[in-house]
Amino acid sequence: xxxxxxxxxxxxxxxxxxxxxxxxxxxxxxxxxxxxxxxxxxxxxxxxxxxxxxxxxxxxxxxxxxxxxxxxxxxxxxxxxxxxxxxxxxxxxxxxxxxxxxxxxxxxxxxxxxxxxxxxxxxxxxxxxxxxxxxxxxxxxxxxxxxxxxxxxxxxxxxxxxxxxxxxxxxxxxxxxxxxxxxxxxxxxxxxxxxxxxxxxxxxxxxxxxxxxxxxxxxxxxxxxxxxxxxxxxxxxxxxxxxxxxxxxxxxxxxxxxxxxxxxxxxxxxxxxxxx
Amino acid sequence: xxxxxxxxxxxxxxxxxxxxxxxxxxxxxxxxxxxxxxxxxxxxxxxxxxxxxxxxxxxxxxxxxxxxxxxxxxxxxxxxxxxxxxxx
Lengths: 276, 88
Fold this sequence. Notes:
The complex is a heterodimer of chains A (about 280) and B (about 90). By secondary structure, chain A is of the alpha+beta class. Chain A is about 50% helix and about 20% strand. Residues about 265-270 of chain A have low confidence and may be disordered. Strand 9 (about 250-255) of chain A pairs parallel with strand 1 of chain B.
């Protein structure tokens, strides 16, 4: 390997049993542990990576290459998960590279309090992703028969001339769209409160766009004790069995290491959502 | 845990790429390394990936509708290989 840097994966608290280490991102260099200082029980995990791939300019360039990105993101997740299986591991964002070991040590001085607190809060817990979807076309059709206002307007359209009918149809679509949005807002808050009461912590995440009528309207990460995953899924199933929520589809991802709970950046999104 | 009927509106998926990117690029403790990914770059990757995934959704939709689609001349994996949508 020519010039090398150090890729930082995350932090952990040293225990009696040493961690089992394996190959890092480049597939050949083993992971290494570096203690915060001689007397500290905190350490970080790094591995050497080639700067011709992870150097500043090259890294930015590689991030635009979807194949490179997928390969490395999957490898990074695998490494993080394997470490998380062994200890409470606090992951750092992908692509944090140092040029020398001395620089890592100097940087770590700033993080020991935060890391210690995170390890305490997140010990024995994991993250599940919870997404809810509705099919706006199905809801639209449902409202045409179940909503009185919509039903009346729809009946009126049938008896009008094509010109007037066209404008009434636009009015009907706008009416139903507003009703769907109001329903989604109400249901989102109910779901948020339900999930919040079932988990140790919850963070709202951005919804992924879709060009089909199936729309994601809720995306959250929930923090749970690792023993509660099946129980949590069962509770969501119970919630969705309510008549009012029967048209909602749910997708659960994970379990994940608690990626979404190691910083505070999502609090703003949550506040905006609750203030609507 | 869930029977087939229940699965129709309740599914548990594996770690898809977009989920991984969501977590690994956008979260995790932000430590100031000597080289770090800037937030702007993360946003750019997202935009590109959404375009890519939307393209795949669209192709699937068209294929389901039974329309002829020149998939053989531009397969999905070629779109990925070319990094279409992967760049912003």
